[in-house]
Amino acid sequence: MHFPGPFALIDANNFYVSCERVFRPALEGRPVIVLSNNDGCAIARSNEAKALGIKMGHPWFQVRQAWPDAGITALSANFALYGDMSSRLMGVAAGLGPEQEVYSIDETFIGLAGIPGDLARRSHAVRSRILQWTGLPTCVGIGPTKTLAKLANHIAKSAERKPGSYPAELAQVCNLAILPASELDAIMAATEVSEVWGIGPRIAGQLRMLNVRTVRDAASLDPATVRRRWSVTLERTIRELQGQPCIGLEQQPSAKQQIACTRSFGQPVDSLEPMVQAVSEFAARAGEKLRAQGGRTGQMLVFAHTSPFQPGKSYSKSITLALRRPSSNTLDLVATAARGMRAIFKPGIQFMKAGVMLLDLAPEGQEQEELPLDNEGEASERLMSVLDAINDRYGQGAIRVASAGTQVKKREWEMRQQLRTPRYTTRWDELPVART
DNA sequence: TCTGGGGTCCTAGGACCC
DNA sequence: TCTGGGGTCCTAGGACCC
Fold it and tell me: What pairs with residue A351 in β-bridges?
């Protein structure tokens, strides 16, 4: 395990909303939310939207009813844009220190070992550079462990957004590593235990029953007792709060152990053909992800179910299928997914969601080889790399399997996305226009 | 009318082995 | 009254993260 602390955590503020605002500055200062797939519920909120009381995961149709006159702008998720903005952010953020772990689309840990001088001042400089070069506002938290860096980031954000919640000088950049013990103690006593990375609602509730309510309370627990009562995971969290590094920095993203592609439909589907289309498409997407990490799959899970929100009879079924031999070939995967769907489909059901999961992943070259009776394997690899290269250059879906549906064959299962902004940075025909 | 998607890790318990 | 000891592998379920 690698502990090049102290650690910084750089985290974008309201990331998806901030990406949208870069290209639509008129949205500054206004309540803006970004919706999940299918325009279902709020997954990102501007500060103004949070101030209205809109919650994470709040269904859009309820938001619309509850605040008809608040001037809320709702946008469909534009993941092509967010992914590209993320890689720009990560590139500039890397300048803060020698080692970097990209933790999520909008967060990165930086290992600061060996950096001399005032880390807070350096962080302010990098923060300004990110804002100037990408347009994205961020906050930086610094601590001797990753858990404390996360906590510091929370404090930096709260101090900025809610003046008075913490000392004003901690806004935007908060370095817990150099705080005098008494001040650190006061801050931990003023922070709820549920804010700690790794403590979710369930464990926070159990801790509350033991009168452990603040971060300070949690940091005073005995690690051995915590391990006995809960698990080694929570023990690590407690030790990290006490300043002992237990969670290392992971610079190379490790290969995934499973790959999923699942979607809710834009409308209920009750016939077999569109269901087969949908899982064909999902299998093809999953195959792209699989080839990107250089892996093969030996098992696929296919599932479909009705909406959990609709009254009436519900139906949910899944099947696990073995591939004849480990493969990353889209044509194999699509055929397997279609076979699975035919096995679990039942007429007269209003299906609302389906998905494909690739299990039992292994790196290429690790599986047992069959005697090559022809050059089938090599041809398949060349076909897939050409497919990926074309889709990479001309856009996702430029070439796809026909069983996933075509423009002629309507794709009735496709998700709704009526409020999507242009893919400004990744499509030539959607570039922002400066002047006509 | 309308409610997301994609991951990881840990533990307990059962099956099975010698 | 008594009923071994130790190990591995797999799966399901719980909890967490963004």
Answer: A269, A306
DSSP-derived letter for residue A430 is: G
Cα angle for residues A60, A63, A66 (degrees, 5° grid): 150
Residue A195 has pLDDT above 80, yes or no: yes
Percent of chain A residues past pLDDT 70, beyond the cut = 96
Q: Would you tell me how many other CB atoms lie within 10 Å of the CB of residue A433?
A: 7
Please state, in angstroms and rounded to a whole number, the distance separating the CA atoms of residues A278 and A146. Answer: 40
Per residue in A334-379, pLDDT (tens digit) is 999 999 999 999 999 999 999 999 998 988 766 555 655 556 677 8
Q: What is the DSSP string of A85-142?
A: HHHHHHHHHGGGSSEEEEEETTEEEEE-TT--S-HHHHHHHHHHHHHHHH---EEEEE
Q: Torsion angle of alpha carbons A14, A357, A343, A413, nearest 10°?
A: 30
Chain B positions with an atom below 7 A of a protein C-beta are 1-11
Contact A356, A261 (CB under 8 A): yes
A260 in helix, strand or coil? strand
pLDDT value for A374: 58
- Do A18 and A12 touch, CB atoms closer than 8 A? yes
Q: Is the pLDDT of residue A91 over 60?
A: yes
Cα gap A170→A241, rounded to integer Å:
19
CA of A103 to C1' of C18 (A): 9
Per-residue pLDDT of A26-74, as tens digits, reads 999 999 999 999 999 999 999 999 999 999 999 999 999 999 999 999 9
Name the nt closest to A282 by C-alpha to C1': B5
Rounded Cα distance, A98 and A275, in Å? 48
User: Which protein residues have Cβ within 7 A of any strand C atom?
Assistant: A 103-107, 150, 196-204
Q: How many residues does chain A have?
A: 436
User: Rounded to a whole number, what is the distance in angstroms from the first to the last CA of chain A?
Assistant: 55
Contact A27, A135 (CB under 8 A): no
Provide the residue type at A201 as one letter. Answer: P
pLDDT in the model for residue A409: 62
Taking every pair of C-alpha atoms in chain A, what is the biggest distance, in angstroms? 74
Protein A102 CA to nucleic acid C17 C1', in Å?
Answer: 14
Between the CA of A258 and the C1' of C11, what is the distance in angstroms?
16
pTM summary value:
0.93
CA of A208: how far to CAs of A150, A193, A204, A205, in Å?
Answer: 21, 9, 6, 5
